């Protein structure tokens, strides 16, 4: 009874039931033979005893044949279950390997994230506008998160530097133009000095002539 309580598979329950019936039938055959021998003594069995024994043997053979059929089915079923178990184990092994790979990739990514978080990025060294000053200039970024606010500050710094660079280039062009103008004036003054010296040289005889007349 305790054994039957642990067996829930219908096919195995049928095997136990037929096995129990075969055992009982074998005991019945033994009882019939023992009773017939006790009645007949050393003589042959009577017709009634032989008929009863034949009937019990047929029932026993029927149960044994049924039991053999169930045993064969159970054998095939066990082979099938063994194959299914091997396939399921293989799937579990594959999934376990995939899980280990995911764990390895997770640890790798966590290490990369940690390295990125601890890396001294160049943007952290940029002389950006203080946050308060930047928000005073562009209050629309007041609700941005840390990353969005940093990107906005960097973009603002870039636009400011580009504007300053444009002003520097414009001032440099004006400087070059002023230098060129000054050089032209110096050249003009130098030419004027030469012309004046020539004029003086030409005017010297006239000046001497006037001096004699006077």
Automatic annotation (TrEMBL):
UniProt xrefs under InterPro entries: THO_Thoc5 (IPR019163)
Pfam families: FmiP_Thoc5
One GO MF term attached to the UniProt entry: mRNA binding
Keyword NAD: no
Top-rank taxon, per record: Eukaryota
An individual GO BP term: mRNA export from nucleus
Compartment list: Nucleus
Keywords tagged on the record: Coiled coil, Nucleus
Chain segments annotated as coiled-coil in the UniProt record: 142-181
GO cellular component: THO complex part of transcription export complex
Protein family (similarity comment): Belongs to the THOC5 family.
PANTHER family tied to this protein: FMS INTERACTING PROTEIN, THO COMPLEX SUBUNIT 5 HOMOLOG
Designated name of the protein: Fms-interacting protein-domain-containing protein
